[in-house]
Amino acid sequence: MSEHEASLTQQLLAALLENTQAQNRLAQAIVSQADAIADLADAVAGQLNDDDQGSGTTYLSGAPR
């Protein structure tokens, strides 16, 4: 392998590493957003259940309240 080819290979590997790190950061952000959405859904379900306690209305849990 020539010096030029070695340099290009090194640049390519560095770019691949940078891309992989960026993808990992994106995946972590997506997981964080999914956790926040799940927390929000839990809060909404709790509020719905609290608001309609004893009304007989069925909400997210599937059980009459």
Structure in words:
About 75% of the residues lie in helices and about 0% in strands. It has about 60 residues and is mainly α. The protein has one domain. The protein is rod-shaped. It starts with a helix and ends in a 14-residue tail after the last helix.
Brief rundown of the structure:
With 65 residues, the protein is mainly alpha-helical. It is 75% helix and 0% strand.
Topology:
Blueprint: H1 3-51
Main traits of this protein?
mainly alpha, 75% helix, 65 residues, 0% strand
Mean of pLDDT = 86
Strand content: under 5%
Compute the number of structural domains: 1
Shape: rod-shaped
The overall strand count is 0
Largest sheet: none
Nearest-angstrom radius of gyration? 25 Å
Task: Please state the structural category.
Answer: mainly alpha
Unreliable segments of 5+ consecutive residues: none
> N-to-C SSE series?
H
